[in-house]
Amino acid sequence: LIPGTEYQISVHAIKGSNEGKPSHATGVTDIDSPNNLVTRDITETTVTVMWEKVRAEIDGYILAYSSAEGSSEEIHVGADATSYQLTSLKPGVLYTIFLWAYKGSRMSKKISSEAETELDAPTNVLVREVTEDSARVSWDRVQAEIDGYILSYSSADGSSDEVQVEADSTSYQFSHLRPGVAYTVYIWAIKGSRSSRKATTKTETEIDAPRNLKAFDVMRNSAAITWKPPQAQIDGYIISYRPEDDSRQTVEKNCMAGQDRFSLSGLATGKKYIVTLIAYRGSKRSKVVETIFVTGVAYPFPMDCTQIMSNGNMKSGVYTIYVANDQKKPMQVYCDMTTDGGGWIVFQKRNSGKLSFMKRWRQYVEGFGELTDEFWLGLANIHALTNTSTMYEVRFDLGLGSEHAYAIYDDFKIGSAKQKFKLTIGNYRGNAGDAMTYHQGRSFTTIDSDNDIALGNCAFTHSGAWWYKNCHLANLNGKFEDNRHSM
After folding, report:
1. C-beta separation of 449 from 420 below 8 A
2. DSSP string computed for 97-158
3. Taking the C-alpha atoms of 276, 281, 286 and 291 in order, what is their torsion angle to the nearest 10 degrees?
4. Stretch(es) of the chain classified as CATH 2.60.40.10
5. CB 206 within 8 A of CB 180
6. What pLDDT shows up at residue 484?
7. Where are the beta strands (DSSP E) in 192-285?
8. Ranges for the Fibronectin type-III domain (predicted)?
């Protein structure tokens, strides 16, 4: 019979040629079920269902599916349909799909098939924290229940690697990469023998910096630098160098990728230089490497401020000198690099009067005050400086601001402590007047060591200490701004 068809059935008895009165009945065959229910074109969120049509005249088909997470609503499909695409499914889920035909309130038997959606691929794959030899890959987790992820990379130079990470991971750091290399990174989810699509992204590691930057052949006005090249392929190097104390004098040079040394010229004597080196390729820059060196000087152990100046130091300030150029005899002094051409050792300075110069013998021998303010260098130091083979001038600068006078004597030295630091002074020139010749040959006097020829102690009488005679024409260690003289 034909499925789903209403039949009129008649039955009557016969005997010979005689027939009885017929009895009638009506019967309807069941609707037949669809055949060959199959699934195909399965993706992460869709399944296409196909079947063979029923023979019965029907109103349509009903599709439904279920999984461990529950059942769907029924989906009505037209009577002529032989396929249907299920959408909005979840990735990596096993679905049981049911199909049956219906006509009015009558239903065929259900047929079923199974389909498991594909695992979804990781999304939003990014590479960050890229260095010369490492890169961190991050991603958004998949929806499917999985065993884990597999990450791999490949590069044009043939290097590759593959690693598996846990299902709850959202990032992984690749290490031991090569500097300046372009990498393609892949990631996919796995569950048993099944794999998702591969998600991919690209990155390029940073250029590594040159190594072992060193200075050599350092001279007074030149030096050379050498380095070991980076591993990365580069276009060249950028070299810059400058004195440590003046960034305005920065010099920048470029050199080719094949170079591993460079000569620096036009350097200042006795200066500390900072050299930086960067490798580059296109717009990419390596980290900066740096080295420091000091150019040579004419006087490694300068004996006075003139030699300090010859070494390239042109600013007034505190410097270390070495008596008679002897490394074992260092002395800190204040160098005046501006007055009368500069190069003066300052052994006494007074400009405010806040420091009392009425001191005892021992203090005048050893020195007192601060070299950057008011001070006395010390008789022992002055004796050491003036008793060498070099003849020194002495200069006295008097006054402040526009009211200024000076006196220079073309020879200056003092005797030893046994000689009470006896004064020897040469010929005068200047505009302040010759006051020091009066003190020629005199020993030094303090309030507790009277070596003058006056009846009393000139140091005590005139509140100071000097090479007093009877008593003074110059009293530069006396009471501040007291201009009176006594002879």
Report:
1. yes
2. EEEEEEETTEE---EEEEEEPPPPPPEEEEEES--SS-EEEEEEPPSS--SEEEEEEEETTS
3. -20
4. 35-116, 123-204, 212-294
5. yes
6. 63
7. 194-195, 199-204, 211-216, 223-228, 236-243, 251-256, 261-264, 272-281, 284-285
8. 33-120, 121-210, 211-300
- Please name the amino acid found at residue 410: D
Token pair for residue 136?
A: 């961190």
Q: Rounded to an integer, what is the distance from CA 219 to the centroid of its chain?
A: 32
C-alpha Rg value of the chain to the nearest Å: 52
Kindly provide the b/e burial profile for residues 179-189, where b requires at least 16 CB atoms within 10 angstroms of the residue's own CB. Answer: bbbebebbbbb
Q: Rounded to whole angstroms, what are the CA distances from 487 to 142, 407, 453, 454, 474?
A: 105, 20, 11, 9, 10
Burial degree of 242 (CB within 10 A; 0-12, 13-18, 19+): middle
> pLDDT below 50 — which residues of the chain?
none
Q: Which fold has domain 347-461?
A: Gamma Fibrinogen; Chain A, domain 1 (3.90.215)
What CATH number matches the domain at 35-116, 2.60.40.10, 3.30.70.100, 3.40.50.720, 3.30.530.20? 2.60.40.10
